[in-house]
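Can anyone check this?
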Amino acid sequence: MTARKRTTDPRYTRADMDEVSDSPEITAEEMSKAKSFSEVFPELAESAKRVRGKQKAPTKQLVSLRLDREVIDAFKSKGAGWQSLINETLKNAVKGG
């Protein structure tokens, strides 16, 4: 068995890919003329954007709140979910806990 150079997919060798590929490599000049997907297909690009829908049963309300920097830093230092942690802390304070 001869050694064959592998591509990223271990099931196919470079020779396999070359055999089925009739697309030449793109040149730097061609790349410089390339347009983005949203330029070529603006309507399709717009429709493909993921947008979060309206909540079925809104349980939270968006507010603007000014907090001391040290408070924000303390909660952020706990990592991901720091805003939810502030919410839990405030809920417990309201309940008297």
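Reply from J.R.: I decoded it. The radius of gyration is 27 Å.
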